[in-house]
Amino acid sequence: MAVTHDVTPDNPPRLEELVPTAHRIREAIESVIEGKSEAVRITVTVLLAEGHLLIEDVPGVGKTMLAKALARSIDCPVRRVQFTPDLLPSDITGVSAYNQQTREFEFKPGPVFANIVVGDEINRASPKTQSALLECMEERQVTVDGVTYELEAPFMVIATQNPIEMEGTYPLPEAQRDRFTARIAMGYPEPTAELEMLDVHGSTSPLDKLQPVATADEVRALIRAVRGVYVSQAVKKYAIDLVVATRHSPDLRLGASPRSTLQLIRSARAHAALSGRDYVIPDDLQDLAVPVLAHRLLPSVEAHGQRRLPEQVIAELVRRVPVPETRSR
User: Which among 291, 281, 289, 296 has a CA at the least distance from the CA of 318?
Assistant: First the structure.
């Protein structure tokens, strides 16, 4: 059962309160997703970094299950959208409908008005429908018929997609990909984990037994605590050096944007906090460089011909960019 802390503007959350609550969320998710601790860790990191998560992999490896497990572990409104080719933007954001009794238009909120929005198979919808998420993901607001509606914090979009080689998929626009803080792949489970899955999932779904372990107020408090994690000038410069290196790499025709630098720092703060530190070190940036940066990059023609993935390019840049010498606070 979640324990609510007395958090007010005059009583800011303390870092030591963060780790137990975050661990409860991780343990709740891992009770459903076996053998994917790294994917779960990044998922919780993105949540506390006020970001959005893209889960890309082949069908049947637990993408939607991971998204649902996070949503159920937090006691807050959750909505799920099944993206299909005939889905319209208004099906996501909402629509103004005419009320015959009042003779006025009334706004009917769409599924985006929730704390956790699960977008299943996002790349099966048209680019026009995918773009309906751009404003809400970046500005935490929705504009319909000239009226702007604020979204309640925390707000996180967890989208799943199949590889673009799969039939009936559309590639995500670059602007859409850039708004996702991180991208992860589930991968196939280990044989032992798959055997355990057959025993656990064989008769009932573990999601049915999953109870919330944190409240929306607790998550908001955790996010505020993460914002206070210290980042030195040397570490900030290191983050910029990593991002700038992608813009000058001959293997990439599209480097990382300034938004990616901000997302990398935010994620590093959350990563440090989950490790029990109130300061960021270069290792935090190195651990997150691939999931935070790779999906934003486009390989050059030569790199594509040689089948060099952006993930491989990022890993090489991390090895080449000089690491600053830092001292703990």
Answer: 289
Q: What is the pLDDT of residues 117-167, one digit of tens each?
A: 998 889 888 888 888 888 899 999 998 888 899 998 899 999 988 776 566
The pLDDT tens digits of the residues spanning 2-23 come to 444 444 444 555 777 777 888 8
Residues in Cβ contact with 164 at an 8 Å cutoff, skipping those fewer than 6 apart:
123, 170, 171
3-state SS, residue 154? coil
- Cβ-contact 112, 142 below 8 angstroms: yes
pTM value is 0.88
Structural tokens at position 20: 């137990």
Tokens standing for 133? 């998420």
Report how far Cα 139 is from the mean position of its chain's Cα atoms.
15
What are residue 8's DSSP bridge partners?
11
Q: Which domains does the chain show, CATH number per domain? A: 15-224 (3.40.50.300), 229-320 (1.10.8.80)
